[in-house]
Amino acid sequence: MERPLLLVGCGKMGGAMLEGWLAQGTADAGVYVVEPSGSLPYGLGSKPGITVVATADALPSDLHPEMIVLAVKPQVMSDVIGAYRRFAKPGTCFLSVAAGKTIAYFEQHLGDKAAIVRTIPNTPAAIGRGITGCTANANVGKAERDLADRLLRAVGEAVWVEDEALIDSITGLSGSGPAYVFHMVEAMAAAGEKVGLPADIAMQLARATVAGAGELMRQTGEDAAVLRQNVTSPNGTTYAGLQVLMDEKSGLTQLMEKTVEAATQRSRELSN
Questions:
Q1: Residues 211-252: pLDDT tens digits?
Q2: Which of 14, 109, 182, 220 matches a 20 to 30 Å C-alpha distance to 101?
Q3: CA atoms of 226 and 114, how far apart (whole Å)
Q4: What is the strand order of the sheet 156-160 is part of?
């Protein structure tokens, strides 16, 4: 990277991304951070190459960032986006992590010549285990896409889709997905209590089981179906439980389809 990055907003997501960039050496050309509080979490403001300002007006007039990462909350985006229109010129790409803000929205505020990457990360990005869905407009070239991909992989994995409409589907699956998993842990713990376990032990068992199963999938790279089959003995205890979860009419598959569809539809509504 030959020119600096500009990070707008350094809350949980912005801070996690900045930590990741510093750790992997992506920010070797420096990072300007616009954060109204004037201070950054985790002591990031004191790191070499980091310049913190409170407003866009305080940025150098000759600044030509390679990538501008918009990490402010969706509800305040309209209040701040206009200040960055002056950077919408060749050689600068905008990357948004704001849910519900479409490429058309950014083209309206930044101009139709602006290079824009729209993404939807999820909350495990805060610990470097997120996954981000991405799409870009026609003004984004290969080098800009590659840089965006590298920046996003600092906090986990990244997947790209050409059809922007699929960002709503990604929101319904992975964007909202951590909450589904957290609720599953709640449900497992409650079920453990029903069969006689103390509440604290039931929760400890449920949390560790879900976290461990997820890490096993990540480390082995095996298909989830294969891992499921590996731990299911014919007519054993796991088999008995799965008969309920995999019921063709009322099982987890049918419930999850309804869950993801509901979240996807809501994302569509919020994007319009």
A1: 999 999 999 999 999 999 999 999 999 999 999 999 999 999
A2: 182
A3: 45
A4: 50-53, 31-34, 5-8, 67-70, 93-96, 115-120, 130-136, 156-160
